[in-house]
Amino acid sequence: MLASDLKLPLPSTEELPSSDDTPVDNEDQNLLPNLLLLMLAHHWSDRMDWYFGADMAIYHTTGRNPRIPIVPDGFLSIGVPRKKDGKSRRSYATWEENEIVPILVLEMVSHRYRGEYKEKATIYKKLGVLYYVIYNPEFFSRHKHEAFEVYKLVRGRYVRQKSEPCWMPEIGLGIGRSQQVIGGIEQEILTWYNEDGIAYETPENVMEEMKAQVRLQREQMREQLEQMREQQAALDAEHERAERLAAYLRSQGIDPDNLPGL
Length: 262
Prior knowledge:
262 residues, alpha+beta, tt1808, chain A, 3-stranded antiparallel β-sheet, 3 helices, 11 strands, 28% helix, 22% strand
């Protein structure tokens, strides 16, 4: 029986833990979800109707106890404000979000298997998460799966999506893998894609492009300044020639300001 059926009082997120305190066992579990967040923050900067959480507890009423969360590595919700009442979220409780559940959830399989292919999939299916992404670059053969898999909830069950990047029309995003240089190190990361299969730029690439634009603008300004200096030098030389000619004419008894017309 669901907690909502029992009419139990639902706690506020202010009194609930923000996570389950389970430590990540590799740095990519922190890095990759946060890169996805930063990419969205750049490309959806004009939108205020989405929220991406990383390693954040999701509280819901589809289990036995609404105080027991599911904590994915990352999740995306559409139709909720980026800031709740102008404040940052400590956790995500569906009953405080107009019952809007995440439309996408990301799980990264680590050294210690935590039920990403079975138990967690069952919870997300029951919750109604439309897209379930599992990233397992190191141990996929151990579980007889692929390194990157996207599942879509179709008629109550998760159906594997074969394309990569996987376009998700309900979200207006694609997701897949790409090789990028992050912090000076080339590595595989998870990336958002547009409908044409073009990867969104990482924050680092955006910063490099901005730096390149600044360098180009500075170079253009230097060239313009040099042209202005050359033009001024030419004007000064012309003025000097005119002054010398006027002085010569005066030495010959001719008023340079009162020359007869030609």
